[in-house]
Structures are given as C-alpha cells and as structure tokens.
Amino acid sequence: MGCISSKRAAATASPCYEYSAAVSHNGSVLLQPSSSSLKKDNSASAATTNNNVSRSKSKAKSKSNSSEFKKSGSKKDPQNHRPGDVSEDRSVVGGRESKKSRKEKEGSYHSHNSHNGGKGSAFSFRLGFSSRSSLEAEQVSAGWPSWLSAAAGEVIYGWIPLKADAYEKLEKIGQGTYSSVFRAKEVETGRIVALKKVRFDNFQPESIRFMAREIMILRRLDHPNIMKLEGIITSRSSNSIYLVFEYMEHDLAGLVASPEIKFSDMQIKCYMRQLLSAVEHCHLRGIMHRDIKASNILVNDDGILKLGDFGLANVVNSKSKQPLTSRVVTLWYRPPELLMGATEYGVSVDLWSVGCVFAELFLGKPILKGRTEVEQLHKIFKLCGSPPEEYWKTSKLPHATMFKPQHTYESSLRERCKEFPTTAVDMLENLLSVEPYKRGTVSSALMSEYFKTKPYACDPSHLPKYPPTKEMDAKIREESQRKKPGIRARETRKPRRVRKALLESNSSAKLAPKEDGQDDHTQSARRMNGGNPLILRAKGGLLRRESNLKPQFDTVSENCELNASLGDSTLSSVQTSAASGFTWAKRGTEDGTQSAVSDGSKSQFSALDANFARSTYDLKQGHRTGRMAIRKLRTFDASELTSTEEPDDTGNNTDCIAEEKRDIEFSGPLLSQPCRIDEHLRRNESHIRHVARRSRFEKGTHANLNPRRA
Ligand SMILES: Nc1ncnc2c1ncn2[C@@H]1O[C@H](COP(=O)(O)OP(=O)(O)OP(=O)(O)O)[C@@H](O)[C@H]1O
Q1: Quick one: how far is CA 319 from the chain centroid?
Q2: Which GO cellular component terms are attached (predicted)?
Q3: Residue to mutate, 181, 200, 228, ligand 1, most ligand atoms under 8 Å from C-beta
Q4: In what order do the strands lie in the sheet with 297-299?
C-alpha cells in the first residue's frame, strides 16, 4: 500500500487541508485528513500569507513595469530576471520553475517529489491567500489577463505568463479535440518546444474551469515520464492560451502505425516500464489520467517516453459520494465498467487503458477497435471473457443488466496473444480484467515477472532513432493511401480523426478514431448533417452512441472537485445539468466563432439518455426506454440542430438535415439478444460501407464543385 501526503488547496489563509492518500490494492486512492501535517501546514500557511501581502505591495510598485516582461521565456538572460520584479520575487523565471525556485516557493507551493518505485510519494499543493482580490491584482500586474486570474487564479499562482513573441510558431504537429499543437522555436535560445493551443470561451467559467483543471493537474505532477508544463502564453483578448511543453519527436500512435517499425520485446519492455512509472506517479499523487492511449504517449529522440494530455484527468477522491462521468477515455481504450456507465471508479480505469496500449505495442495496431460502445463491450467480452453470474448479480453498474450477455464468453486472450512472451500475457491478462479490482495496481504491474525475465528492458538511449512520427503523420499517410485509386477505405489502417470544427459543433466533443473504413462515413455524414452526432448515427443506421467523446465539462461532482482543489468561489456559480450529468457548453472555434451547443439544463433532449437508448434498444419494438428516447428525439427541435451546426467546407449542410431525420432507423437490442449480434454487426458493417461509398462519391462531387477544396 502506497501512501501520499497531500495538502489540498485552500482558498483563504485559513489552515490548509492535508490529506494522506492511500493507494489500495484495487487501485483506488483514499484521501484522508492527516493531523500531523495539518500542524506544519498552519505555520507555513501563516508565512505564506505574510509573503503574499508583501508581494502584493511590491507588485503594486512594479505594475508599471509589467509590460516589460519581454522574452520571459529566457531563463538565462539575467536582464529578464530583474531584481524586484515578480519573477525574482517568486523565483519563477519566464513561467518555468528553477530548482532554486522550488525551495523558495516553499511557503506557497510545495512539491515533494519522491518517486520511490511504488512505495509511495508525497506531495502538497497549498495556497494560502490573504485576499483574493490582492492575488488578482498581483496576477494582473504580472501580465495575466484579469478574466483568467478571476476565474482560475490558483492554477497560475506563482507563475508569470510567457510572451508570445518569445516564440516563433512553426508547423502544426498535432490536432486534438480542443487543441492544436505546434512546433515552435524559442527565439532567444533556438530551443524547439511544443505549443499546445487550448481554445476556450473566456466568458464561460466552465470552459475556463476545464482548461484550468488540466493546468492544475500538470502542475501537481513532476516525473521524468510525464510531460512537464513549462509555462503558459496568454493574451488579454484571445479565447485561447498556449501551454508550453518540451518538444517530443514522436507519439506512440505514430510509431505503432509506422509500417517500418516493429518493436522488439526489450523495446516494448522499455516503453512499458516508462509508461507504468508515469502512471504510477499520477496514481500515487491521487490523479487518474482517464485518457491513456497511444497518441497521448510521447517519445523523444533519446527514447524517453512521457505521458501527456491531462485534459480529462481528475483528482481521485474516494471519500466523495459525488458521481463521476463515465464518458471519459477514448473508446478503444475504455474499460468495460465505464462502458456500462460506472460513475464511481478509481485509478483502475487507467490500468485497463495501459493494457490496451501494451497489446498494441505487440500487435502493431489497437487490440479492441469497436465502433460503438455496444460493439466495444462485445469485443471486450469476446477477448477477455464475460464476467461470471455473480458479477452481474452484484453489479451496481447503471447499464449492467442491459449489457449482460445471455451466454458466457470464455477468454480468448491467450489464443489471440499466443505470440507474446508468457510473462507479457500474464501481465496483460491482469490489466485487461473486466473486473477492476483484478487489475491490481500500477506498482504491482511494475513488479511483475514480465520485468524480471529476459530479455530485460533496454535502456531508453538504446532505442532506435526514428524519423519524426506522430499520429498526425500516420493520418496523412493513411489519407494519401486512401486517395490512391483502387484502395478501399477499409483497407487503410487507421481512420482519420473527425475535423476539429465538426467536433466542436458536436455537443459532446471527442471522437475516437474509428474502425477502418468508418471514417469516410463519419466525415461525410457529419458534413451532410452539420456535425450532429445524433443524425449521423441515424443516417448510417449505425447503432452508435458516440460517447467515445471527450466531455467538455464533467459532472457536477467533478466540477465540485475542481472547486475544492482550486478553492475558487467564483467557479461555483457554474451551471450544470443534474439531469444529464453534463453541462453542454459553448465552445469557441479556432476562428473565434461560437458553436452553440445545447445546455443540458435547457435542452429537452438528453444526449446521454437518448443516445444510449438508441444504441442499445430496438426503438421500434417499443421498449420503454426506447419510447422515451423516441419522444425525446421528437421533442428535439430541428432549430437546435441548425444552431449547433457549422457549415461544411462547401457551405452546404442544412438541406441534409431533413433528409437525415427521415432516415432515422433503429434496430434491436444487442446484448440482450446475443444470437442477433453477429447479424446486427454485419448489417451495421454493410450500412457503413454503403454510407462510406456514398460519402466518397459526394465528397468527390463537392470537391469538383467547390474551388476551395479542389
Ligand atoms: N510536447 C509535445 N511534443 C510534440 N508533439 C506533441 C506534444 N504534445 C502533443 N503533441 C502532439 O499533438 C497531439 C495532440 O496533443 P494532445 O493529446 O495534448 O491534444 P488534445 O487536444 O488533448 O488531443 P486529444 O483530443 O486527441 O486527446 C499528440 O497526439 C501529439 O502527437
């Protein structure tokens, strides 16, 4: 059992809260108040309060100088580190924290990083502010926009913003759901960095909250195998900020997809050891990542692996009875309990995802490539075996009864992985246990026989040097393959991600990569219907609940979690929809336009319920949930559809909506009638092919008509 000592952020100068977090064998982290450190904390807190008061005074003086924070990205230039300015005062230079600064910051931000191989580590994150307004004044004078300081002052605490002109933006290297990632050069040093442009709406506190959570969590973590946030570039007016990271040449998705690369056993072991170390660090610090997948695992030319993208990560708090969202983790890497709607879960969700990545490294492709949640779960049961009767009897998972197969599936994992070393299959079997508690902990995986048997993990420096390889490169390669005449979409290895603009017009956001051949269908149908996932699903007759999506904002409880962590009263005014468990928010697009997305509290349509019903039941059969879903669909105003859509590249999309609505087609329950599964999947497959063919044809027509695309 590992132990963590953590001091939770407090919003005032009142005693800081300290928790000890115990990681249990089933992977859950328990946070408990610890009296011993509370004492220490109180004294430190008082010191901090004093510090902050004096800083505020000194800041007031230096306010007029704040715009002079020019090349604040430079660590070396002493001119940028002027005596008396905020960077010296806080021992933070250019948004980066020097080693020295860590010690000096003791009074305001503790970080005891003792990565000790699974025995536990300690951390503290404590903020003691005498007054919120003085903090805001301080931060604004340091160059932070007031809206950011007001909404999420704690996450930027102790930092000064980096200046945009300190960097030269080079090419785009990654495209995420809410972000674009660019390679950039630090002007002064010539050092290459990665800039992650995170878009949000600075008038929407929940939008800022989402971004703030990622920053807060990144600041909590400090490990050689975790992407370190080096600083933040912000502007007063813009609705995006840039997170500055060390540049990493590759991501695992790109490497795995590369036809020239086949990892050896010792290389896989080397990657796995690094990955598990990173995840162990997160878990010991009470953080669950909730989006571990190959494209979020970055590798540099020295063979060092770093876990990135903490956009969905959250603090584990097993004491809290508040539900979490089950709509996390990209579909192919999503554990069965989340597919069955779990709202109480812990770090073991990450262990499942790690298992999926592990298998992918051996296979050279993702192991579980479902296109719908139902199909994903079906694939899981076929691979890992379905749980015993007892499991279903005692399961409290919201959708367990719906997903219970009528007959038991035996595990086929050993057969499927017969080429893997035995110790690897043993570890994989643990990680891919349908029952979360059987997955063990990351620490137990690190201590497993797999790492103790030959061939041992190679040293990262002995890993081959690959040409820059990113998921994006793989997509480009695949796209050009796909365009070659005579190559059918389903022959391509990995599907393209859905375009950003469409994702953003989609109320629920993040699409996982799709099964071969699906992408055309997805792209095209979205283009036709303005990106509305509801209609898209109906169009293809495809039983899909696209909840391999990144929720823009999490459940009420998760918001509260962040509030607690940030101690920010201004954030508690966020509206959430208790009914749907989600807040559908407005999300700005890159060009600054707003994609209006229905708010769960306002819309008559609960995407969660109806989509789930649609993907699970035969609505024609008049199942109660199905009927409810149909009613909901009917009350879903078409005007909402048009308001959520963004024009496709051709500018034509609304015409298709009516057609799409007419085309809605529902099919029968899947797992409650297992004899029909195969037939059902076959039918879906043929729908997909049909729509993909049609979409390719339409795409060609659009391209010919529209000079912009030609
Ligand atoms: N530090 C980095 N160095 C190099 N490339 C990076 C870096 N960070 C991210 N990338 C690239 O950008 C891609 C997207 O980044 P990231 O996952 O952080 O964004 P995201 O919006 O959260 O994406 P997603 O929605 O896919 O999870 C990554 O898959 C990777 O290829």
Answers
A1: 23
A2: cyclin-dependent protein kinase holoenzyme complex; nucleus
A3: 181
A4: 250-251, 297-299, 305-307
In terms of residues, how long is the chain? Answer: 710
How far does residue 64's CA lie from ligand 1's centre (Å)? Answer: 37
To test ligand 1's pocket by mutation, which of 169, 309, 466 has the most ligand atoms within 8 angstroms of CB? 309
| Average pLDDT of the residues in 326-348 | 96
Question: Of the given ranges (215-219, 436-440, 540-544), which has the lowest mean pLDDT?
Answer: 540-544
- pLDDT tier, 510 (very low <50, low <70, confident <90, very high otherwise): very low
Token pair recorded at residue 626? 């199905």
Full DSSP string of 334-396: --HHHHTT-SS--THHHHHHHHHHHHHHHHSS-S---SSHHHHHHHHHHHH-PPPHHHHHH--
Ligand 1 interacting residues, C-beta cut-off 6 A: 173-174, 176-179, 181, 194, 196, 227, 245-248, 251, 291, 295-296, 298, 308-309, 311, 470-472, 510, 550
pLDDT one-digit tens code per residue, 447-457: 999 999 999 99
Structure tokens at 643: 């308001």
**Partners of residue 23 on adjacent β-strands:** 2, 29
Q: Residue 318 has what pLDDT? A: 75
Q: What gap in Å lies between CA 471 and CA 173, rounded to an integer? A: 9
Domain 250-475 classified CATH 3.40.30.10?
A: no
| pLDDT of the residue at 685 | 58
Higher pLDDT among residues 351 and 53, named by residue: 351
Spatial contact of 193 and 173, defined as CB atoms under 8 Å apart: no
234 pLDDT band, cuts 50/70/90, is: confident
Domain residue extents for the chain = 144-246, 250-475
Query: Which of the listed CATH numbers 3.30.200.20, 3.30.70.1290, 3.30.70.2750, 3.40.50.920 matches domain 144-246?
Result: 3.30.200.20
In whole angstroms, what is the distance from residue 41 CA to residue 89 CA? 22
Which ligand 1 atom minimizes the distance to the CA of 497?
26
**Lowest model confidence (mean pLDDT) among 367-371, 399-403, 633-637:** 633-637
Phi, psi for 696 (deg, rounded to 5): -65, -40
Separation of alpha carbons 406 and 24, rounded Å: 33
The order of strands in the sheet holding 179-186 is 167-175, 179-186, 192-199, 240-246, 229-233
* CA triple 674-678-683, angle to 5 deg: 125
Query: Is the overall model pTM greater than 0.90, yes or no?
Result: no
